[in-house]
Amino acid sequence: MQKPWETGSCKHVQPYYTVYPVPVAAALWCSVPPSEVEQHLSVATEVHRAIFRHPYIKCLEPGCRALHEAIEKGGAAGEP
């Protein structure tokens, strides 16, 4: 007999998740309003592949680094 999670549909979950590029996720994590993310990232400087530094959003670079580390290790904890 199959378990419910083996046969269930994920259609109800799919609309609720979005995949963001790391710099966008880091900006959102730093409390940048979603409508302003692209504007702020256009001012940021890429210091390493997908790691950005911003002149006045100080947590952007640590946020990018923390997200990359979490992706590599398989989980995230704490604040940037």
Automatic annotation (TrEMBL):
Q: What is this protein called?
A: Uncharacterized protein
The protein's organism comes out as Candidatus Kentrum sp. LPFa
